[in-house]
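The protein record now logged underneath.
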Amino acid sequence: MQLQESGEMYLETILILSEKLKNVRSIDVVEYMNFSKPSVSRAVGLLKNGGFINVDGSGYITLTKPGFELASKIYERHTILTHLLTRLGVDESIASNDACRIEHVISDETFEAIKKHIAQYS
């Protein structure tokens, strides 16, 4: 199943929250993303049906292997692109926002070239 940008953003958020919290619940996603409860509930249902997350009886959300792999890929893109843009002199807040948009559309080939370039010149 191919996810849209919003689905990728939810997975990335769940990954980030799972590194900070013992257990992640929908309300944590609501608060982190500043989205409505119904929007998050719908997204959680879609991600669960798509096999990207599991939700247990207590409402705790965990990433499945495919969900974790995709979330990690998106998060890596976000952090590296933010780093690159700030190194170019872009304000960190703007760099993070721009990286958030770029991370969903950049090709694997281009992103790998950026990573290689950064590694070579850092």
Q: What stands out?
A: Strands lie at 24-25, 53-55, 60-63. The CA atoms of residues 51 and 111 lie 26 Å apart. The chain has six helices and three strands.
